[in-house]
Q: What sequence folds into this?
């Protein structure tokens, strides 16, 4: 069994690699660019809060609230068109979304909702002081990680 | 294909009578641990440092649910699919009936109570370097955890990987008890080395493997194909990772990278484990990563 399977797998990998090279030449599909930009916006706002939480930046209630409100808003955007079928990591070079995501849409949506819950909670407390930011960031990070654990390609 | 042939060769050689003697499953007898007092707090720390919950708790489990060791995590590899077994205290489904020496034997020698070799998806090759007192304490801690009746699922492996006798030879040539890094008397580095090389078994994923599937100590922690799925595991030597000790500690305890990306893949669970260790231990791990030879 192993040999034909291995051959099929190798052949399949070649076919996928060919597609991937073509894709990398053509640039990333808009949907992939859109969701990666969305992630970048999360990271930017998390960085403002995280910088304060770690003592690398002075706490500001105004800046913390603004960043946390951005996170909450981002987490509640309708993202369905970002996660277009046929843009998984097996099909598109540069995509980090595993095919498993499309096989488990309800779970992925529920993980997204968990992030929204954590981000909204943080937006409601971020103006109350540094400790509130430190306490609220943990659940946000874990919500991000929960989806990355299941559906993000492990890479360099 | 090369790996397949290498394994086939191992099986063939192992099947030769003489090698069966040197490669038979090793055990740690009751007498070897009789004088060692178990310390539950120490055992709990070892449990988190060794990452038991990462494979034996349900995927995605958080908090207290990580103490329910019903198994079920799957690892898709070229050899087939490995399934982490139930190691809860349930008497039939789990390990509730095992003696403490049998648990210690499984962890340190990769040998089951029935005398079979475990597949090295269970990282006993790293745990073999652990202190006996830590593992005795870990076994005692496991004994305090809940029962779960979920039966263990069998591995789904093709020939020749379904022949366990070859594992004995693999153990004898691919498992080394030598430390990879010389810590030159530095206590923090020594602690970090212990946590990384033994309990944390970081090298199992982050170090590439040799032709015989041992860890390649000349490219220690230099990155490797993901052993349980698509993608790659990153190079975390100073040749590729320029994070500060503080950056590494923050990542390992919160999951946030210096750019505030968030941990993913199997590392997500590692962060949940390390967040429960004393900060000094995580700092020791970070110091160790800064001290390993850089590989580009």
A:
């Amino acid at each position: 069994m192993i040999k034909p399977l291995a051959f099929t797998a190798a052949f399949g990998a070649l076919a996928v690699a060919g597609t991937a090279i073509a894709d990398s030449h053509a640039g990333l599909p808009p949907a992939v660019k859109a969701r990666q930009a969305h992630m970048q916006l999360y990271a930017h706002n998390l960085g403002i809060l995280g910088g304060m939480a770690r003592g690398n930046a002075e706490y500001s209630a105004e800046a913390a609230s603004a960043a946390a409100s951005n996170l909450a808003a981002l987490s509640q955007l309708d993202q369905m068109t970002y996660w277009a079928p046929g843009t998984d990591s097996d099909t598109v070079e540069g995509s980090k979304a595993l095919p498993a995501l499309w096989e488990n849409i309800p779970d992925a949506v529920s993980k997204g909702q968990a992030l929204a819950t954590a981000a909204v909670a943080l937006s409601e407390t971020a103006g109350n002081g540094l400790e509130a930011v430190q306490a609220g960031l943990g659940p946000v990070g874990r919500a991000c990680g929960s989806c990355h654990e299941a559906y993000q390609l492990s890479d360099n | 294909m090369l790996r397949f042939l290498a394994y086939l060769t191992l099986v063939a050689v192992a099947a030769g009578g003489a090698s069966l003697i040197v490669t038979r499953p090793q055990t740690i007898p009751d007498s070897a641990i009789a004088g060692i007092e178990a310390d539950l707090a120490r055992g709990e720390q070892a449990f988190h440092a060794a990452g038991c919950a990462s494979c034996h708790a349900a995927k995605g489990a958080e908090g207290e649910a990580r103490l329910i060791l019903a198994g079920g995590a799957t690892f898709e590899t070229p050899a087939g699919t490995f399934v982490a077994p139930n190691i809860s205290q349930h008497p039939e489904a789990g390990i509730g009936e095992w003696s403490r020496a049998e648990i210690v034997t499984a962890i340190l020698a990769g040998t089951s109570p029935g005398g079979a070799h475990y597949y090295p998806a269970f990282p006993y090759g790293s745990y073999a370097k652990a202190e006996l007192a830590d593992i005795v304490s870990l076994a005692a801690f496991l004994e305090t955890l809940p029962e779960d009746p979920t039966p263990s699922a069998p591995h789904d492996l093709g020939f020749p990987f379904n022949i366990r006798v070859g594992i004995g030879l693999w153990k004898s040539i691919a498992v080394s008890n030598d430390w990879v890094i010389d810590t030159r008397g530095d206590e923090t580095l020594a602690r970090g080395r212990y946590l990384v090389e033994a309990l944390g078994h970081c090298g199992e994923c982050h170090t590439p493997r040799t032709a015989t599937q041992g860890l390649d100590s000349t490219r220690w922690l230099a990155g490797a194909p993901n052993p349980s799925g698509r993608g790659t595991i990153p190079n975390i030597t100073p040749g590729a990772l320029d994070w500060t000790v503080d950056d590494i500690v923050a990542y390992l305890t919160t999951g946030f990278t210096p750019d505030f990306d968030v941990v993913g893949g199997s590392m997500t669970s590692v962060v949940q484990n390390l967040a429960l260790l004393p900060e000094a231990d995580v700092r020791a791990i970070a110091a160790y990563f800064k001290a390993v030879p850089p590989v580009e």
About this structure: The mean pLDDT of chain B is 92. Residues 27-174 of chain B form one domain. The CA atoms of residues 42 and 155 of chain B lie 32 Å apart. The beta strands of chain B are 74-77, 80-83, 156-157, 224-225, 232-233.
